[in-house]
Amino acid sequence: MYDVIRETPATIRSAIVLAVDPERGVCTVKTNDITGRLYKDIPYSTGYLSPNGGGIDICPERNSQCWVMSRSSDAMSPNDGEASIIAFKTPRIKDQYLNKRIKLLPGDLRFSTSGGNEFMLRKNGDVYIFSGAACSLSLVSSEELVKMVSPSFEHNFGAGNVSWQVNSSIAGGPTSCSFGLKRNSSDSLPYLQMLAGESMGGGLNVSMYVDGEQSSIQFELDVSNEGVCAMFIRKSLTVSTEDSINLTSRVINVAGSESVSISASQSSVVATSNKLTLTADVVEICAKQFIINDYGANVLTTASDGSSTVLSSNLFDLLKNHSHTSLGTPSETLSVLSVDPYSTKSKLI
Fold it and tell me: Is a pLDDT exceeding 90 seen at residue 15?
Protein backbone atom coordinates (compact mmCIF):
# COMPACT_ATOMS: atom_id res chain seq x y z
CA MET A 1 0.00 0.00 0.00
CA TYR A 2 2.89 2.35 0.80
CA ASP A 3 5.92 2.19 -1.49
CA VAL A 4 9.35 3.29 -0.28
CA ILE A 5 10.08 6.72 -1.73
CA ARG A 6 13.35 7.30 0.07
CA GLU A 7 15.32 5.36 2.57
CA THR A 8 14.91 6.66 6.11
CA PRO A 9 15.43 5.01 9.49
CA ALA A 10 12.53 2.75 10.53
CA THR A 11 11.24 2.34 14.07
CA ILE A 12 9.32 -0.69 15.37
CA ARG A 13 7.12 -0.14 18.42
CA SER A 14 4.89 -2.33 20.55
CA ALA A 15 1.24 -1.23 20.35
CA ILE A 16 -2.35 -2.18 21.09
CA VAL A 17 -5.28 -2.08 18.66
CA LEU A 18 -7.91 0.47 19.70
CA ALA A 19 -10.27 0.36 16.70
CA VAL A 20 -10.77 -1.68 13.51
CA ASP A 21 -12.36 -0.70 10.19
CA PRO A 22 -13.05 -4.09 8.47
CA GLU A 23 -14.30 -2.54 5.22
CA ARG A 24 -11.17 -0.46 4.65
CA GLY A 25 -8.81 -2.97 6.26
CA VAL A 26 -7.17 -0.44 8.60
CA CYS A 27 -6.70 -0.02 12.36
CA THR A 28 -6.08 2.67 14.95
CA VAL A 29 -3.37 1.67 17.41
CA LYS A 30 -1.66 3.16 20.43
CA THR A 31 1.94 2.45 21.34
CA ASN A 32 2.71 0.79 24.66
CA ASP A 33 5.64 3.08 25.46
CA ILE A 34 5.53 6.19 27.60
CA THR A 35 4.68 8.40 24.63
CA GLY A 36 1.44 6.53 23.89
CA ARG A 37 1.39 7.84 20.35
CA LEU A 38 -1.59 7.11 18.09
CA TYR A 39 -1.40 5.72 14.58
CA LYS A 40 -4.73 6.15 12.79
CA ASP A 41 -5.99 4.25 9.77
CA ILE A 42 -2.86 2.18 9.25
CA PRO A 43 -2.96 -1.16 7.35
CA TYR A 44 -2.07 -4.54 8.80
CA SER A 45 0.02 -7.26 7.20
CA THR A 46 -1.03 -10.86 6.47
CA GLY A 47 0.82 -13.90 5.21
CA TYR A 48 -0.38 -13.43 1.63
CA LEU A 49 -2.94 -11.44 -0.35
CA SER A 50 -3.74 -12.15 -3.98
CA PRO A 51 -4.42 -9.27 -6.39
CA ASN A 52 -7.52 -11.25 -7.43
CA GLY A 53 -9.05 -11.24 -3.94
CA GLY A 54 -7.69 -14.51 -2.55
CA GLY A 55 -5.05 -15.15 0.08
CA ILE A 56 -4.92 -15.17 3.86
CA ASP A 57 -7.37 -12.56 5.01
CA ILE A 58 -7.70 -11.61 8.66
CA CYS A 59 -9.54 -9.00 10.67
CA PRO A 60 -7.86 -7.98 13.97
CA GLU A 61 -9.79 -7.53 17.20
CA ARG A 62 -9.70 -4.63 19.61
CA ASN A 63 -7.05 -4.97 22.36
CA SER A 64 -4.86 -7.18 20.16
CA GLN A 65 -1.15 -6.69 20.75
CA CYS A 66 0.94 -5.88 17.68
CA TRP A 67 4.19 -4.49 16.29
CA VAL A 68 4.00 -1.20 14.37
CA MET A 69 6.73 -0.07 12.03
CA SER A 70 7.03 3.61 11.09
CA ARG A 71 9.55 5.56 9.05
CA SER A 72 10.24 8.19 11.71
CA SER A 73 10.94 8.27 15.42
CA ASP A 74 9.54 11.78 15.62
CA ALA A 75 5.97 11.75 16.81
CA MET A 76 5.18 14.84 14.71
CA SER A 77 6.90 13.60 11.56
CA PRO A 78 4.72 13.49 8.44
CA ASN A 79 6.33 10.17 7.58
CA ASP A 80 4.25 8.56 10.31
CA GLY A 81 1.64 8.20 7.60
CA GLU A 82 3.74 5.38 6.24
CA ALA A 83 3.29 3.31 9.42
CA SER A 84 1.77 -0.18 9.27
CA ILE A 85 1.16 -3.20 11.52
CA ILE A 86 3.79 -5.76 10.54
CA ALA A 87 2.85 -8.55 13.01
CA PHE A 88 0.83 -9.50 16.06
CA LYS A 89 2.41 -10.76 19.25
CA THR A 90 1.80 -12.60 22.49
CA PRO A 91 0.01 -10.41 25.07
CA ARG A 92 1.94 -9.22 28.07
CA ILE A 93 -0.29 -11.30 30.35
CA LYS A 94 1.02 -14.62 29.11
CA ASP A 95 -0.94 -16.77 31.58
CA GLN A 96 -4.24 -15.50 30.18
CA TYR A 97 -2.98 -16.06 26.66
CA LEU A 98 -1.81 -19.62 27.31
CA ASN A 99 -4.92 -20.65 29.26
CA LYS A 100 -7.06 -20.18 26.13
CA ARG A 101 -4.82 -22.18 23.83
CA ILE A 102 -4.09 -25.86 23.32
CA LYS A 103 -0.54 -26.85 24.08
CA LEU A 104 1.47 -27.02 20.88
CA LEU A 105 4.45 -29.20 20.07
CA PRO A 106 7.35 -28.15 17.85
CA GLY A 107 6.17 -28.16 14.24
CA ASP A 108 2.45 -27.80 15.03
CA LEU A 109 0.30 -25.11 13.39
CA ARG A 110 -2.87 -23.67 14.88
CA PHE A 111 -5.40 -21.14 13.61
CA SER A 112 -8.17 -20.00 15.93
CA THR A 113 -10.62 -17.27 16.87
CA SER A 114 -11.61 -16.02 20.29
CA GLY A 115 -15.07 -17.54 19.71
CA GLY A 116 -13.70 -21.07 20.05
CA ASN A 117 -13.20 -22.00 16.38
CA GLU A 118 -9.93 -23.78 15.68
CA PHE A 119 -8.03 -25.40 12.83
CA MET A 120 -4.97 -27.35 13.91
CA LEU A 121 -2.33 -29.19 11.91
CA ARG A 122 -0.19 -31.50 14.00
CA LYS A 123 3.32 -32.38 12.91
CA ASN A 124 2.44 -36.09 13.20
CA GLY A 125 -0.19 -35.74 10.42
CA ASP A 126 -3.32 -35.30 12.54
CA VAL A 127 -5.84 -32.62 11.57
CA TYR A 128 -8.40 -31.12 13.95
CA ILE A 129 -11.25 -28.72 13.21
CA PHE A 130 -13.33 -27.32 16.08
CA SER A 131 -16.45 -25.15 15.86
CA GLY A 132 -17.05 -24.26 19.47
CA ALA A 133 -17.36 -27.03 22.04
CA ALA A 134 -20.23 -28.88 20.33
CA CYS A 135 -18.85 -29.57 16.84
CA SER A 136 -15.53 -31.09 15.84
CA LEU A 137 -13.87 -33.08 13.08
CA SER A 138 -10.75 -35.12 13.76
CA LEU A 139 -8.55 -36.89 11.23
CA VAL A 140 -6.28 -39.10 13.31
CA SER A 141 -3.43 -40.30 11.11
CA SER A 142 -1.95 -42.85 13.52
CA GLU A 143 -5.31 -44.65 13.93
CA GLU A 144 -6.50 -44.13 10.32
CA LEU A 145 -9.66 -42.71 11.88
CA VAL A 146 -12.10 -39.95 10.92
CA LYS A 147 -14.11 -38.86 13.94
CA MET A 148 -16.93 -36.32 13.86
CA VAL A 149 -18.88 -34.93 16.82
CA SER A 150 -21.95 -32.71 16.42
CA PRO A 151 -25.51 -32.50 17.82
CA SER A 152 -26.96 -32.40 14.29
CA PHE A 153 -25.67 -33.36 10.85
CA GLU A 154 -26.75 -32.82 7.26
CA HIS A 155 -25.01 -34.02 4.12
CA ASN A 156 -26.41 -33.37 0.64
CA PHE A 157 -24.55 -35.09 -2.18
CA GLY A 158 -25.16 -36.10 -5.76
CA ALA A 159 -26.54 -39.52 -4.87
CA GLY A 160 -28.91 -38.34 -2.13
CA ASN A 161 -28.82 -37.01 1.41
CA VAL A 162 -28.23 -38.00 5.03
CA SER A 163 -29.53 -35.97 7.95
CA TRP A 164 -29.97 -36.25 11.68
CA GLN A 165 -31.33 -33.47 13.82
CA VAL A 166 -31.50 -32.79 17.56
CA ASN A 167 -33.96 -30.29 19.04
CA SER A 168 -31.31 -28.49 21.08
CA SER A 169 -33.82 -25.99 22.45
CA ILE A 170 -34.83 -28.69 24.95
CA ALA A 171 -32.37 -30.41 27.25
CA GLY A 172 -32.11 -33.98 26.01
CA GLY A 173 -34.46 -32.99 23.19
CA PRO A 174 -36.04 -35.35 20.64
CA THR A 175 -34.14 -36.46 17.56
CA SER A 176 -34.99 -37.28 13.96
CA CYS A 177 -33.05 -39.04 11.22
CA SER A 178 -33.53 -39.32 7.46
CA PHE A 179 -31.74 -41.00 4.56
CA GLY A 180 -32.45 -40.62 0.87
CA LEU A 181 -30.89 -42.33 -2.16
CA LYS A 182 -31.42 -41.19 -5.75
CA ARG A 183 -31.55 -43.58 -8.68
CA ASN A 184 -30.05 -40.87 -10.91
CA SER A 185 -28.20 -37.77 -9.78
CA SER A 186 -30.51 -35.67 -11.97
CA ASP A 187 -33.60 -36.79 -10.01
CA SER A 188 -35.23 -34.14 -7.87
CA LEU A 189 -36.25 -36.58 -5.11
CA PRO A 190 -34.81 -39.86 -3.80
CA TYR A 191 -36.46 -43.12 -4.86
CA LEU A 192 -35.43 -44.81 -1.56
CA GLN A 193 -36.18 -42.99 1.68
CA MET A 194 -35.85 -43.83 5.38
CA LEU A 195 -37.32 -41.78 8.26
CA ALA A 196 -36.91 -42.40 11.98
CA GLY A 197 -37.12 -40.62 15.31
CA GLU A 198 -39.41 -37.73 16.17
CA SER A 199 -40.48 -37.24 12.54
CA MET A 200 -42.07 -40.73 12.66
CA GLY A 201 -43.41 -40.47 16.20
CA GLY A 202 -40.53 -42.55 17.51
CA GLY A 203 -41.06 -45.24 14.88
CA LEU A 204 -39.47 -46.17 11.54
CA ASN A 205 -40.55 -45.83 7.91
CA VAL A 206 -38.79 -47.18 4.82
CA SER A 207 -40.27 -46.34 1.39
CA MET A 208 -39.22 -47.13 -2.16
CA TYR A 209 -40.70 -45.39 -5.20
CA VAL A 210 -40.70 -46.30 -8.86
CA ASP A 211 -38.78 -43.15 -9.82
CA GLY A 212 -37.09 -40.03 -8.51
CA GLU A 213 -40.38 -38.09 -8.58
CA GLN A 214 -42.01 -40.36 -5.96
CA SER A 215 -45.03 -40.78 -8.25
CA SER A 216 -45.79 -44.41 -7.36
CA ILE A 217 -44.77 -46.29 -4.23
CA GLN A 218 -43.44 -49.83 -4.75
CA PHE A 219 -42.56 -50.83 -1.19
CA GLU A 220 -43.22 -49.47 2.28
CA LEU A 221 -42.35 -50.72 5.75
CA ASP A 222 -43.79 -48.88 8.74
CA VAL A 223 -43.02 -49.71 12.38
CA SER A 224 -44.77 -47.65 15.05
CA ASN A 225 -43.50 -46.74 18.50
CA GLU A 226 -46.03 -49.23 19.94
CA GLY A 227 -44.52 -52.11 17.95
CA VAL A 228 -47.18 -52.27 15.22
CA CYS A 229 -45.59 -53.26 11.89
CA ALA A 230 -47.19 -52.78 8.47
CA MET A 231 -45.69 -53.64 5.09
CA PHE A 232 -46.88 -52.90 1.56
CA ILE A 233 -45.43 -54.60 -1.57
CA ARG A 234 -46.87 -53.73 -4.96
CA LYS A 235 -45.96 -56.93 -6.82
CA SER A 236 -44.93 -60.12 -5.02
CA LEU A 237 -43.03 -61.37 -1.96
CA THR A 238 -40.74 -64.41 -1.98
CA VAL A 239 -39.22 -65.86 1.19
CA SER A 240 -36.71 -68.70 0.78
CA THR A 241 -34.69 -70.49 3.46
CA GLU A 242 -32.69 -73.73 3.68
CA ASP A 243 -34.04 -74.51 7.14
CA SER A 244 -37.42 -73.44 8.51
CA ILE A 245 -39.76 -70.48 8.89
CA ASN A 246 -41.40 -70.07 12.29
CA LEU A 247 -44.41 -67.83 12.93
CA THR A 248 -45.53 -67.33 16.52
CA SER A 249 -48.50 -65.12 17.34
CA ARG A 250 -51.73 -65.04 19.32
CA VAL A 251 -53.69 -64.76 16.05
CA ILE A 252 -52.41 -65.35 12.50
CA ASN A 253 -54.61 -64.18 9.61
CA VAL A 254 -53.83 -65.05 6.00
CA ALA A 255 -56.07 -63.44 3.39
CA GLY A 256 -55.94 -63.43 -0.39
CA SER A 257 -58.31 -61.53 -2.66
CA GLU A 258 -58.37 -64.47 -5.12
CA SER A 259 -56.79 -67.50 -3.47
CA VAL A 260 -54.47 -68.78 -0.74
CA SER A 261 -52.27 -71.80 -1.40
CA ILE A 262 -50.08 -73.84 0.95
CA SER A 263 -48.09 -76.75 -0.47
CA ALA A 264 -45.46 -79.24 0.70
CA SER A 265 -44.18 -81.86 -1.73
CA GLN A 266 -47.26 -83.85 -2.94
CA SER A 267 -49.73 -82.25 -0.50
CA SER A 268 -51.48 -78.90 -0.83
CA VAL A 269 -54.30 -76.77 0.51
CA VAL A 270 -55.85 -74.24 -1.85
CA ALA A 271 -58.54 -71.80 -0.73
CA THR A 272 -60.47 -69.66 -3.22
CA SER A 273 -63.40 -67.31 -2.67
CA ASN A 274 -65.91 -70.20 -2.31
CA LYS A 275 -63.93 -73.45 -2.34
CA LEU A 276 -61.32 -75.25 -0.24
CA THR A 277 -59.32 -78.02 -1.92
CA LEU A 278 -57.24 -80.42 0.18
CA THR A 279 -54.88 -82.72 -1.71
CA ALA A 280 -52.81 -85.39 0.06
CA ASP A 281 -52.08 -89.13 0.12
CA VAL A 282 -53.06 -89.31 3.79
CA VAL A 283 -55.12 -86.84 5.81
CA GLU A 284 -54.76 -87.15 9.58
CA ILE A 285 -56.78 -85.05 12.00
CA CYS A 286 -55.95 -85.27 15.71
CA ALA A 287 -58.37 -83.48 18.02
CA LYS A 288 -60.51 -84.08 21.08
CA GLN A 289 -63.56 -83.03 19.10
CA PHE A 290 -64.10 -82.71 15.35
CA ILE A 291 -67.10 -80.83 13.89
CA ILE A 292 -68.20 -80.27 10.29
CA ASN A 293 -70.90 -77.64 9.80
CA ASP A 294 -73.07 -77.07 6.75
CA TYR A 295 -74.38 -73.50 6.83
CA GLY A 296 -74.54 -73.51 10.61
CA ALA A 297 -75.94 -77.07 11.06
CA ASN A 298 -73.78 -79.88 12.42
CA VAL A 299 -73.17 -82.56 9.76
CA LEU A 300 -70.49 -84.64 11.47
CA THR A 301 -69.45 -84.45 15.15
CA THR A 302 -67.02 -86.58 17.12
CA ALA A 303 -67.49 -87.13 20.83
CA SER A 304 -65.43 -84.72 22.90
CA ASP A 305 -63.95 -87.63 24.89
CA GLY A 306 -62.85 -89.37 21.70
CA SER A 307 -64.61 -92.63 22.64
CA SER A 308 -66.91 -92.89 19.61
CA THR A 309 -67.82 -91.36 16.31
CA VAL A 310 -71.33 -89.92 16.35
CA LEU A 311 -73.33 -88.86 13.33
CA SER A 312 -75.78 -86.15 14.27
CA SER A 313 -79.44 -86.01 13.27
CA ASN A 314 -78.59 -83.24 10.82
CA LEU A 315 -76.73 -85.76 8.66
CA PHE A 316 -79.70 -88.12 8.64
CA ASP A 317 -81.99 -85.28 7.73
CA LEU A 318 -79.66 -84.65 4.82
CA LEU A 319 -79.75 -88.33 3.79
CA LYS A 320 -83.54 -88.49 4.21
CA ASN A 321 -84.10 -85.66 1.78
CA HIS A 322 -81.84 -87.08 -0.94
CA SER A 323 -82.59 -89.85 -3.42
CA HIS A 324 -80.41 -92.99 -3.42
CA THR A 325 -81.59 -95.15 -6.34
CA SER A 326 -79.22 -98.00 -5.59
CA LEU A 327 -80.88 -98.79 -2.22
CA GLY A 328 -84.35 -97.38 -2.76
CA THR A 329 -85.95 -94.50 -0.91
CA PRO A 330 -84.15 -92.64 1.87
CA SER A 331 -86.26 -94.51 4.44
CA GLU A 332 -85.38 -97.85 2.89
CA THR A 333 -81.72 -96.84 2.88
CA LEU A 334 -81.80 -96.05 6.58
CA SER A 335 -83.65 -99.30 7.26
CA VAL A 336 -80.96 -101.27 5.46
CA LEU A 337 -78.35 -99.49 7.53
CA SER A 338 -80.36 -100.30 10.72
CA VAL A 339 -80.29 -96.67 11.75
CA ASP A 340 -83.00 -94.73 13.57
CA PRO A 341 -83.05 -91.35 11.75
CA TYR A 342 -84.41 -89.59 14.81
CA SER A 343 -81.82 -90.81 17.29
CA THR A 344 -78.93 -88.39 17.87
CA LYS A 345 -76.69 -91.20 19.10
CA SER A 346 -77.22 -93.72 16.30
CA LYS A 347 -74.12 -95.40 14.92
CA LEU A 348 -73.37 -96.79 11.51
CA ILE A 349 -73.07 -100.58 11.37
Answer: yes
H or E stretch at 314: helix 313-320
Q: How does pLDDT run across 173-200, given as a tens digit for each residue? A: 888 999 999 988 888 889 999 999 887 8
- 60: burial class by Cβ within 10 Å (0-12, 13-18, 19+)? middle
Beta bridge partners of 166: 175
Q: What is the DSSP string of 12-31?
A: EEEEEEEEEETTTTEEEEEE
Report yes or no: 70 and 83 within 8 Å, Cβ to Cβ: yes
The whole-angstrom separation of Cα 274 and Cα 259 is 10
Angle (CA) 269 275 277, round 5°: 30
Query: 3-class SS at 78?
Result: helix
User: Phi-psi region for residue 178, left (φ > 0), alpha (ψ -120 to 50) or beta?
Assistant: beta
Which superfamily does 1-100 belong to? Gp5 N-terminal domain (2.40.50.230)
Q: What is the pTM of this model?
A: 0.57
**pLDDT at res. 5:** 46
Cα within 13 Å of Cα(104), Cβ side: 16
Amino acid identity of residue 327, one-letter, is L
